[in-house]
Design brief:
The protein has 322 residues and is α/β, with parallel strands linked by helices. It has 8 helices and 12 strands. The strands form 2 sheets. A 7-stranded mixed β-sheet has the order 1-2-3-4-5-6-7. It has a 5-stranded mixed β-sheet with strand order 8-9-10-11-12. α6 links the parallel β11 and β12. α6 packs antiparallel against α7 and α7 crosses α8. The termini are far apart. One of its GO terms (biological process) is antibiotic catabolic process.
Length: 322
């Protein structure tokens, strides 16, 4: 009887292997579908061998893999420099897939421009390939300080697309403006802020006059002022950008722009809001009075309706204690 059982099992083995193979293809297909259904990042060459990946202006979701922001990469003679690593493990893989449409050169370094989730939650994906991750001291501190709270919110918003994500803060830091040479290309890391987050790290390419600003600059989308933001320092940080005089700014959100575009959509809004809230505070008004501030001159910015009221409240709350 035992021999008969063995023979029957042997006869079933090919069918079982075929079934397992089909199941494997199905699972792989589901994972690929998550990526291909995501609203694609827009690849734009902003200077020779310098690329921006423009993300959608929407909330994090399972479809966009928390890559609802801008990223960038520079192709040098022997390697690639990546700016920001994405909001999930799958999001990091999606960023790499865009790089591979341009070059097969190895990624040598990942720079995080800020502590917001989509700037660094993909770090481990690249670190496990032996790629260094680098940012400023202030940015790394913000990553550590808000890691758990951001994991809670981002994992909930991205649902199944969160699978495998294990956020790792940048492992190397700089404390002041630092010049690096990557594949023969000179770049500068410039810590500024706090601004939108506890510390932003600008990436400046002096040869190309291109600046990757991270969340210091928003264009076409209303910026977000959160509990972690410091709007007075955010305004002051614009002096650094003016001194650089970039020809192209790749913002944290929105289309690439020049200095005047960055000032119009970000700097002018911050100055306006602080001025209007200051008048209310000087008049002895309560926070509820911010609803009377007419912000309509900025209503052309995306997500205006969802965010302008909250921005005013955050500014009022901070200015009360200045």
């Amino acid at each position: 009887m035992s021999g008969i059982r063995i023979n029957r099992f042997a006869g079933l083995l090919p069918s079982l292997l075929l079934s397992l193979f089909i199941v494997g293809l199905f699972i792989a297909g589901l994972l690929m579908t998550r990526v291909t259904q995501a609203k694609p990042l827009q690849l734009t060459e902003v200077a020779p061998d310098v690329y921006a990946l423009i993300g959608p202006m929407e909330q994090r979701s399972a479809q966009n893999l928390a890559n609802n922001a801008n990223f960038g990469f520079i192709v040098t003679h022997d390697s690639v420099l990546l700016i920001d690593s994405g909001g999930t493990l799958l999001g990091a893989g999606d960023i790499e897939s865009h790089i591979r449409t341009v070059t097969d050169k190895p990624i040598q370094l990942v720079i995080n421009t800020g502590g917001q989730d989509h700037r660094w939650f993909g770090n481990r994906y690249f670190a496990e390939q032996g790629i260094r991750t680098l940012t400023s001291v202030k940015t790394q501190a913000d990553q550590n300080a808000r890691r758990n709270s951001q994991i809670e919110s981002t994992s909930a918003l991205t649902a199944a697309s969160w699978a495998g994500t294990d956020p790792q803060p940048a492992t190397a830091v700089v404390s002041e403006t630092t010049e690096l040479t990557i594949g023969g290309l000179q770049i500068e890391l410039i810590p500024v802020g706090p601004a939108h987050t506890g510390g932003e790290t600008l990436v400046w390419l002096p040869e190309h006059k291109v600046l990757f600003s991270g969340d210091l600059v928003y264009t076409g989308r209303m910026l977000g002022i959160g509990p972690q933001s410091q709007h007075r320092d955010w305004i002051a940080a614009f002096d650094t950008i003016r001194q650089l005089a970039p020809q192209v700014i790749v913002p944290g959100h929105g289309q690439p722009t020049d200095l005047s575009g960055a000032e119009k959509d970000t700097y002018d809004y911050l100055v306006f809001l602080r001025s209007e809230v200051g008048r209310l505070i000087d008049a002895g008004e309560e926070m509820s009075a911010v609803s009377r501030i007419d912000q309509s001159r900025f209503s052309y910015l995306e997500v205006y309706e969802q965010i302008h009221g909250r921005n005013a409240q955050q500014v009022f709350e901070q200015m009360e204690w200045e």
